[in-house]
Amino acid sequence: MQPERIYLTGLPGSGKSTVGPLLARRLGWAFVDLDRLVEQRAGLRIPEIFVRRGELAFRVLERDLLLESAGWLRHVIATGGGTLAQPGLMDWALEHGWVVYLRAWPDLLRQRTAHQERPLLRYRSLEELWRDRDPIYQRAHRIYDASLEPHQLAELIVQELRVVTEGSAG
Q: Which pLDDT tens digit goes with each residue over 7-65?
């Protein structure tokens, strides 16, 4: 049986928002970036949400949108870096879709996020986030090396999904 949703997880800079559309296109599915959806719903960019409403308000909106995704069929969903690190949400995602962890080491993440505005990185280092979140992300259905090229990652995930789908059909 093929999962109806794929949740991409990983730290900021792991490539979720880049790999997600490529993967969705290959599958003929829709793509949703939860961070962009949070911004649309709030009417504010994420850094502004953090400043005006605080991290907790951001996390509540992020959680609510993730839970809403249970009704989305044939979607690739790029979660925010902290979405599945919230209590209970990794378990929830594992039950409602196929969770893929794009794993990257802090050095690569630092290179990729050097010129991006990431509110949480004002308060916590990538190394600290990696130490806290990697054990949670490791529970994903599959783990891929995020240092690979985005097109290559998308193709590997599609191939793996075919194996999983065919394996559960027989």
A: 999 988 899 999 999 999 999 999 999 999 999 999 999 889 988 999 899 999 999 99
Whether residue 107 lies inside any domain: the answer is yes
Q: How many domains does one find in the chain?
A: 1
We report the CATH number of the domain holding residue 81 as: 3.40.50.300
Any domain includes 166 = no
- 168 in any annotated domain: no
- CB-based contacts of 167, cutoff 8 Å, min separation 6: none
| pTM summary value | 0.90
> Side-chain half-sphere of 97: how many Cα atoms within 13 Å?
27
Question: Quick check: is 170 in a domain?
Answer: no
The strand ranges marked E within the chain are: 5-9, 30-33, 75-78, 98-103, 142-145
Contact between 8 and 20 under an 8 Å Cβ cutoff? The reply is: yes
Which H or E run contains 126? helix 126-137
Q: Which domain holds residue 145?
A: 5-161
**DSSP label at 122?**
G
- Pick from 75, 60, 133, 72: which is nearest to 101 by CA? 133
